[in-house]
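On clarity, I found the account of how folds are encoded harder to follow than it need be. An entry of this sort, consisting of the sequence and the corresponding backbone structure tokens, reads as follows:
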Amino acid sequence: MNAIYPGTFDPLTLGHEEIINRAAKISDNLLVAVAMNSSKPTMFALQDRLKLVEIITSRYPNVTFGSYEGLTVDFANANNIDVIIRGVRNSTDFNYESQIAQMNNTMNNASESIFFIASDPFKSVTSSLVREVINLNGDYSKFVSQEVANFLNKIKVKSL
């Protein structure tokens, strides 16, 4: 099975890492795809988000990464992807993600989605909240891996 795990990963959180780990176990090939153009503005530049994904995906021999612009379902189809992986934390996420999955399936009926329910320690972790902690100079180290925190600290030092 060829799978894609799309997202903005702004920044990549421990919750994202958990999904990558779990999806890598059931996929022959997993492509972590960083969205270039999203309806939400990003805190971190595309090249920095790609670097965060590279840091984490380098642990897995069957995981690659890249970026894309446009519809996920089109990118998946162009890359011979069988399954779109999505993480859900709660019923609100599930309702939203299931609507997207239905739209994707309507646009490409070969498109399937698999939802991973976040483990309890990660259910409250969102990139939005982590960005807010970063903006307010708080300690975000409990929400991202040490490798990600190290890279984010380097970026913050450069921007000062």
Q: What stands out?
A: The mean pLDDT is 94.
